[in-house]
Amino acid sequence: MKNTVTRDILLEERYRTGSPRSKELFERACKTMPGGVKGAYFHRPYPLTMNRGDRCYLYDVEERQFTDFANHHSAMILGHNHPAVIEVIQEQLANGIALGASTGIETELSEEMCCRISSVNRIRFCNSGTEATLHAIRLARGFSGRTKIAKFEGGYHGSHDVVEVSVSPPLEKAGTETMPNGVPTAGGMSPYATEEVVVLPYNDEVSVEKLITQHRRELACVIFDPKTGVLPQRKEFVQFVREITRENRVLLIFDEIVGFRVGQGGLQEYYGILPDLTTYGKIIGGGFPVGAFGGRADIMDLLDNTCGNTGFSQSGTFSGHPVTMAAGLATLKQLTPEAFAHLNELGDRLCNGLNDLFFCKNVSAQAVNIGSVFSIHLTGEALMNYRSLARTDKEMTHRLFLALLEQGYFLSHGLSMNAISLPMEPIHIDGLIEAVEKAIG
Ligand SMILES: Cc1ncc(COP(=O)(O)O)c(C=O)c1O
Questions:
Q1: Residues 6+ apart with CB under 8 A from 314
Q2: Given CA atoms 133, 135, 138, 140 in this order, what sign does their dihedral have?
Q3: Where do the structural domains in the chain lie, given as residue ranges?
Q4: Of the listed 68, 204, 225, 255, which one is catalytic?
Q5: How far apart are CA 262 and CA 260, in angstroms?
Q6: How does pLDDT run along the chain (441 residues), one tens digit per residue?
Q7: Angstrom distance (rounded) from CA 76 to CA 61
Q8: In the 3-class helix/strand/coil scheme, how is 161-188 assigned residue by residue?
Q9: CA-CA distance, 272 to 382, in Å (whole number)?
Q10: Is residue 283 a contact partner of residue 77, using CB atoms and an 8 Å limit?
Q11: Separation of alpha carbons 46 and 27, rounded Å
């Protein structure tokens, strides 16, 4: 692809010139923290340090304004400093930050969630999506009496051992497309993790059916990351996974840690499925660390020890933290059908606009979205599974990311899983499309 992004040899140099304070702060951070920042924030040559956020904008330490499409990994659906959220946080701070007892706010949030989501009869709160998937898998194992899990190649569910199998395997180690190998993603994982996981390919009914039926007597669950706004899933495929798991008496855990931001009933309503268990995170904490898992009462009630010890537990010092619960509840209250319609229309406007642009300019790139979550993939290949995502042009992605930053648009540095926030209007969307046009020339 020949375009302005590839030819611009001064892109990185201008980035450095524009961000001396970020450079200084990053170098200082590296002295006491390995890599300076958490892995997800790092990109070449060094990441920007942000000072503050307001509505859909971020301001870096040089006081430059950026329109925020990274959206804290999609969690800040109302944008930054929404007055309704700030008000309840301040109220809760005045009442005490953490009281070591139930405050009743988590009950209100649980009622709101159970009311919105048909498959969720009971729910428990924890501190991260990682914890949510860990506990959901434990429950599935306990309920079924089986040990193995199945997950999709390229699916992400946080950072405990079994779910870190085959998140981003190098293609030369990944085995065949229809029967992928289990490849550990991180050093130090239990050597047994890969043995406990059956890896499934996305969007391939034949292989999924074969693998699930073959392993059905050992499988506690299939955990399904729908890769919201990253890898399009055919509705029929998602429904097929629901049916094939039900037929084989294998529990389905649907991961809506990102997908819950697409509508009142979340992604399962959009796909028309009822999972056995679902995991949540991100937007339901209003910007604070959060996770939750919920689903069928007969499974979730394993955690009910009020009438005697069931042998199951889920706890955590800060689980159901009152400030988090208050911020999450205030956030959900803002998420009316009209709010979702606004967010989702903007998501469609953006992707249609970008895809028209790529078509007109004959650029090997595509934008994908579900509602307000979107990605820009630098490839002309049809996106079928993890492997098509692994073949996108990483160098071009990096250069486009820098070119957009230069024009005041902050996206995730892989241009993947970006999100639109409620304060945004068509002008922000059209501005991003124009910035991409300018970048590709
Ligand atoms: C689909 C999905 N599941 C699980 C997680 C893990 O959540 P957390 O980062 O809160 O542990 C993430 C995080 O991005 C996610 O996108």
A1: 124, 126, 135, 303
A2: negative
A3: 4-77+337-440, 83-334
A4: 255
A5: 6
A6: 557 787 888 999 999 999 999 999 999 999 999 999 988 899 999 999 999 999 999 999 999 999 999 999 999 999 999 999 999 999 999 999 999 999 999 999 999 999 999 999 999 999 999 999 999 999 999 999 999 999 999 999 999 999 999 999 999 999 999 999 999 999 999 999 999 999 999 999 999 999 999 999 999 999 999 999 999 999 999 999 999 999 999 999 999 999 999 999 999 999 999 999 999 999 999 999 999 999 999 999 999 999 999 999 999 999 999 999 999 999 999 999 999 999 999 999 999 999 999 999 999 999 999 999 999 999 999 999 999 999 999 999 999 999 999 999 999 999 999 999 999 999 999 999 999 999 998
A7: 20
A8: CHHHECCCCCHHHCECCCCECCCECCCC
A9: 25
A10: yes
A11: 9
Cα-to-centroid distance, 12 and ligand 1 (Å): 30
Token pair 């990274």 is found at 70
CATH architecture of the domain covering 4-77+337-440: Alpha-Beta Complex (3.90)
* Pocket residue to mutate for ligand 1, from 168, 282, 416, most atoms within 8 A of Cβ: 282
**257 C-beta closer than 6 A to ligand 1:** yes
Distance (Å, whole) CA 150 – CA 211: 9
Predicted model pTM:
0.98
The CATH T-level fold of domain 83-334 is Aspartate Aminotransferase; domain 2 (3.40.640)
> 59 by DSSP, 3-state: which?
strand
- How far away, in angstroms, is 130 Cα from ligand 1 center? 6
